[in-house]
Fold:
Amino acid sequence: MPETYSRDGSALVIRFNGETIRIEPWGPDALRLRARPGGTVIEPHVSALLDAAPATADIAIDGAHARITNGRIRAEVRLARRLGADVAKEPEIRYVRSDTGAELLAETRSHFAGPSPRSFKALASGSFQLEARFRAYPDERLMGLGQPQHGLEELKGTSTTLVQQNTHVVIPFVLSSRGYGFLWNNPATGRADFATNGTRWLADATPGLDYWICAGDSPAEILSTYVAATGMPPALPDWATGFWQCKLRYRSQAEILDVAREYRRRNLPLSCIVIDFFAWTRQGEWQFDPADWPDPAGLVRDLAEMGIKTIVSIWPTVSANAETYTEMREKGYLLRTERGVPVVIQFPDKDPYGIHFLTYYDPFNPEARDYHWDRVQSGYVDKGVTNFWLDACEPEMRPAHADHVRTHLGNGAEMLSAFPLLHAGRYAEGLKAAGAEDAVLLCRSTWAGGQRFPTILWSGDVWSTWADYRAQIAAGLHAAMSGIGWWTTDIGGFYEGHRDNPAFHDLLVRWFEFGVFSPICRLHGVRVPNGVPYAAPDGEVDYGKELFHVFTDTGGDNEVWSYTPDLLAIFTDLLALRERLRPYLQAAFAAYSATGVPPMRPMGFAFPDQPGLAGQGAFLLGDDLLVAPVLEPGATTRAVDLPTGETWVAAWTGHKHDGGTRPDVAAPPGRIPVFCRAGSWDRLRPVFHP
Structure:
């Protein structure tokens, strides 16, 4: 009869009541737990963790108790009695600091009768619905989990779906104020609940439980440990810190060159210009439409001569009309459905223009990844395009029923959250092989470990409202706490912005200010087409025609000169400010590449001993600048709680303010409140006062 506890190399193995649990060191001050009903644990379909270097753990077994220690973290296991429960005894695990004994996180039951802390409900094909439950702590603060859109800087008290969707990005890592980081190393769809009476992680379908936990003395140390375990970020190319021009959509090679030349004629900074969707022939053919883009290589060359990079939108979708469809279907390169027609989304496409039935290529099949990249190589890379906008890479499905999808590896509910990771990973591999050293991928989604690729996450197709604008600040901060330092948002929002609406002008200016102090500064949106009145009779924004026809044609103008002379003057000043800020940002990105600490940092991360600073919509950019975006329409001042322990300089006036005070500073349009650490002011004064 096997013992309850045993050693397997550096791992502690627990076998009890038909369940096998394996706990082992995985990087410094970190442990990885895997569990499954049966005699052995298995790897998830996709793991975010890199292989760990061999390590020696301190393992002690003492009757009903066992423990494993790796640096500053220890897992303590006991056979807990469960009087009146479904089982008389079961292994219960808690994690503590090995040096102090302080509890970091512990398993728990929601009720003494069940379910157990690790609850496996059998499904078909060797998969389980899984719940893992942990204690809640009243003083705990949590951040991360990707890019939620609830607008809250604090995860405590939230319930969040673990389903990749447009704007909602799943990176199942959380950073705790109790001194630990926790990665739910599972690409399944599911849920994460951070209630006041317990924490619950749910996987809809999975072959087993897999999570990773680390300890550290500061939020920065914990985040650095997580990033190192899942992949250090590359160096951001310097050009990417400049201004990005984008709109839905530029329709031709001639049009995009006209816009680029106008930026140069006006002597306005521009680092890159983005070609949005429908520059292709059909979805799934991955090539330029020669009717509108007759000379892509010449386009890239002409833009490069102006010092402007080219970025092209590519979707992973495949239309049934595409020339590739039959071959991909027969070779098993497409996502399929479990029942009925193999369609996961209806969306507009070309040739003929109309609503088409689409599926996606299957990145869980390595041959499909190679096939897709080969098409991208011949259709774009060979023509000089090395920067890509990987849109709709969640993958976006309507309805979002992952369990209805069949991938090369199994049912979609078991793994679909990792779609964008595998998708971007093949691009990163192909671009590296092509020698594209300064390439980037603008992605609408990613997963844990996505920072190890040249991935810029953007916050998706959000609305042009003040609520959505405020939510993007929190979304960017959560993304940063999930290891994503390359991040941006659509300046002005994506939907329903109207060039002639004065209310939108107020929002656009404040969003532009925030964009200038974001890691990546990018103007985008599907503006209401030119000539359509903004005051619709029913109060709803009117695009003047079905949105399908806007997508396949174009939205309204969205260059910085497309609005009013007053706005152009503000935007001109802001673009000049961004240019002066770029050396500071480049240093912050270099530090991120070296340490994993992102440029954009929540106040609770930067000042963990001052929890009262969180929740005010302010953040630290790099080490020295405290940024406080204006959050309300019509506001001309902004009050900011300053961290204690040092003096802060208001960047626009040069006035000094003691830490711990709450100055209410002037914030006219174009002047976002920024404070600088007094010790760095002499170095950074020229950014604000050239």
